[in-house]
């Protein structure tokens, strides 16, 4: 019996060491592939942070606008690099699909802004994994995430919902079809980036609400008092819904992991825009989209 246990221990240890060796090798390879892009993004983040500190001291509105535009351009470069990194990771996973490591490598990206237009590549990569990897715990989670990704991506029919708003009225997405564009804003009172965008959303609301836009704020606040106070303080003069109060799974239906997360739905009930994260880059993209539509 002792000999059997010893053999099992040796086998398990040897297998574990081999797996660790493979993972170390793959990690080194993908780090090398993305090294230059990661270095570029480190520099870009530093430049953005320095500019953010500098604009606090600016009093001239023209210079302020100029520096804000610089920050937006830097974020554009940063985000483009993230897309390239993700594309490299997907290609690498396709070439090394026999390893669990490859699934782990792409799974962490599936809900990111960089993944927004790469659903087909994710699905292609997933299908290359052998059944034992697809059926692993992480494989099943990725499959479920891809299903939510597919159902909530741009050009998909928006998942319908019927939820009670802050005033107790029932809000149905279907009521806005053939009538208004709908901008869903997933947020929370404790989310700093969400609150920083509030003035811009207020501006969007004032400029477009009479042209056919309805904003619907969807909060994940567990403290409903904090939620209500934030709505008043930030002048959120639009429909406001609490996922907690409704015990709603709407975030899962729209594949929302991080916040802020915005979804634009057209009058036919089709998703025509998604933005993950805060900042002027995304806000300006939303504005441009609305100007084109209206």
From TrEMBL:
It is found in: Cell envelope. Residues 152-294 form the Thioredoxin domain. It comes from the Bacteria. PROSITE patterns: THIOREDOXIN_1 (PS00194), THIOREDOXIN_2 (PS51352). Pfam families: AhpC-TSA (PF00578). Keywords: Cytochrome c-type biogenesis, Disulfide bond, Redox-active center, Signal. GO terms for molecular function: antioxidant activity; oxidoreductase activity. Gene3D superfamilies: Glutaredoxin. InterPro entries: AhpC/TSA, Thioredoxin-like_sf, Thioredoxin_CS, Thioredoxin_domain, Thioredoxin_ResA/DsbE_sf. Residues 1-18 form the signal peptide. GO terms for biological process: cytochrome complex assembly. One of its GO terms (cellular component) is cell envelope. This is TlpA family protein disulfide reductase. It comes from Aequorivita lipolytica.
